[in-house]
Design a protein that fits this description.
The chain is an alpha+beta fold. It has helices at 17-24, 26-61, 63-67, 157-166, 205-212, 294-319, 332-336, 340-353, 359-372, 423-430, 432-453, 469-521; strands spanning 76-80, 85-89, 96-104, 110-112, 140-144, 147-151, 169-174, 179-184, 195-197, 217-222, 225-230, 237-239, 244-248, 251-255, 259-262, 265-269, 286-292, 376-378, 381-383, 390-392, 406-408. The strands form 7 sheets. It has a 5-stranded antiparallel sheet with strand order 1-17-3-13-14, with no helix packed on it. The protein has a 4-stranded antiparallel sheet with strand order 7-8-4-12.
């Protein structure tokens, strides 16, 4: 650290020229330091504003944006009194009870091939060739849903499965069990598949290959039911793909999968309804009940106020912060003399005070508080947040900078109000329409005013900003130029003084030399 004390350390004059020059330019250097400190504080202020703006913008585009629409207060839930299906409801579902029967589950077409054996009676390995299993005099052509596949004697079992897969099914040869497993790629009647040999083949090569691979069968349709019979007396099993069928309120619906989306309900069938001979339909009906999802609506409102409370406390804390009198930006030397925690606490004191009594910050705080304190008319009656058991604490009850925070009566997570009657939940359950209209209008007011405040102001504020970011940047850039100019001035002053001292040192050196010569002459 520089000192005002002048040390005599010149080579010729005995003067400490560096210290002297430092003292001569100290006033100008101090001015540079003050400028840099001001710019550092401005940088911290910009960072604080960016962080706050980001939090407010996140609230604006997220929770606040959602809650300004009435539709987001129409959450429904659906329950069923049996395990034949799982049910969920969206906001468009009709309130009330409905009957449901599951008549048929969706299935994928599935073929478990008969056990394959080579002429020696052994189970073929995956690498064993078709020609070693089946008697082939020529290539065989088979069809899967009409798509032709060529099987050669030089193909192994895995390659046969790969050929099947290219026809649009899932296929695998299990060498452990000696069987082919083939299935459709999706459930439903239209995704079903059939494997047939090509009638145009000579020597029945297609039929003989399918039989040898445990895949040959015929089928017969009787009363809409298809039955399968192996053509090689193997234990082949074929299951036909089918659609799911349900009956909701007497109307039948069909789907290729077990999931149905009907008028706001999402129904996933889990099993067929029990038969009931006493029922006119022959099936036992289950009851689906759709009701207002009180908890979901309540949680969305509670979640908003949790986020809002954290934000408004932070805003109030910045606005009401103590002045950082006596605190300035630390120099590198000062930081070295302090611990990391001490430096952090010192700088935090400065940062926390940068928005103290800030006009822009005050406007934002008032925007939130004024809008949330408003009343809304619904059905000719005025409502406020207090009408739903949502209010701030009294002056002596609230903590520092917590007077703008809202508390919900009956909230089990709020120590201040959890013992009170839960008016909000009761209102959601008993009068969801009033809840929807009140909160959507209330939050729409906050959203609209925030939108207005975040509009661009030429040369002052960018769009979607709540602070004068352009002015702060201009000030920062101005300080950058001023600091550069001041540093140049200090350098110029130092050069001037060093030139003077250099001239003096040269003159003294010359004088000393001449004095020595004169003394020599005198003997």
């Amino acid at each position: 650290m520089a000192t005002d004390r002048i040390r005599m350390s010149g080579l010729v004059s005995g003067l400490d020229t560096e210290t002297i020059v430092g003292a001569l330019v100290s006033a100008a250097s101090y001015k540079t330091t003050k400028m840099k400190n001001t710019q550092k504080k401005l940088e911290w202020k910009q960072e604080t504003w960016k962080s706050l703006n980001s939090e407010i913008y996140s609230l604006y585009t997220g929770k606040l944006d959602n809650l300004r629409y009435e539709g987001n207060y129409n959450a429904k839930k659906a329950t069923i009194d049996s395990d034949i299906a799982t049910i969920s409801a969206d906001n468009n579902a009709i309130l009330g009870s409905q009957t449901l029967e599951v008549r048929q589950m969706a299935k994928s077409g599935y073929l478990t091939g008969g056990k394959v054996a080579n002429p020696q009676g052994n189970t073929p390995k995956s690498s064993e060739l078709v020609g070693d299993v089946a008697v082939m005099t020529e290539d065989a052509t088979i069809k899967i849903n009409g798509k032709k596949i060529t099987i050669t004697g030089g193909m192994n079992m895995d390659q046969v499965a790969e050929a099947f897969a290219k026809a649009g099914v899932t296929a695998n040869y299990d060498s452990t069990n000696g069987r082919f497993f083939i299935s459709s790629k999706s459930s439903g009647k239209d995704a079903n598949f059939e494997i047939e040999y090509n009638d145009e083949d000579t020597n029945d090569s297609g039929r003989r290959v399918l039989d040898a691979l445990g895949l040959g069968y015929t089928y017969e349709d009787v009363d809409g039911v298809r039955t399968y019979t192996s053509t090689s007396d193997s234990d082949l099993v074929k299951i036909q793909g089918q659609n799911a069928k349900i009956v909701l309120n007497g109307a039948e619906f069909e789907s290729s999968s077990n999931t149905f989306n009907i008028n706001g309900l999402s129904i996933t069938a889990k099993g067929v309804s029990d038969r009931d001979e006493t029922s006119p339909t022959g099936y036992k009906s289950s009851t689906v009940t759709t009701s207002v999802d009180v908890d979901k609506i309540y949680d969305s409102i509670k979640d908003f106020f949790k986020t809002y409370n954290e934000l408004i406390k932070k805003l109030d804390s910045y606005y009401n912060a103590d002045a950082a009198k006596g605190y300035d930006v630390l120099s590198d030397e000062e930081k070295e003399a302090m611990s990391d925690d001490e430096v952090e606490a010192w700088e935090k004191k400065i940062k926390d005070s940068l928005l103290r009594r800030d006009d822009n910050l005050n406007s934002i705080i008032n925007l939130f508080k004024d809008n949330l304190a408003k009343s809304v008319t619904v059905g000719g009656k005025n409502y406020s947040l207090a009408s739903f058991g949502i209010s701030t604490l009294g002056y002596f009850e609230a903590g520092d900078n917590e007077h703008g925070m809202y508390h919900i009566d009956g909230d089990p997570d709020d120590e201040n109000t959890k013992s009170k009657d839960d008016s909000l939940k009761k209102m959601i359950a008993s009068d969801p329409e009033t809840v929807s209209k009140f909160f959507s209008q209330l939050f729409k007011g906050v959203y609209t005013d925030l939108n207005q405040s975040m509009r661009s102001i030429e040369d002052t504020r960018s769009a979607m900003k709540l602070y004068d970011d352009k002015l702060l940047k201009k000030e920062y850039d101005r300080l950058t130029n001023d600091i550069a100019a001041q540093e140049a001035k200090v350098q110029e002053m130092e050069d001037h003084y060093y030139d003077k001292f250099t001239a003096m040192e040269k003159a003294l050196s010359k004088l000393n030399t001449e004095s020595s010569s004169f003394a020599s002459m005198l003997g």
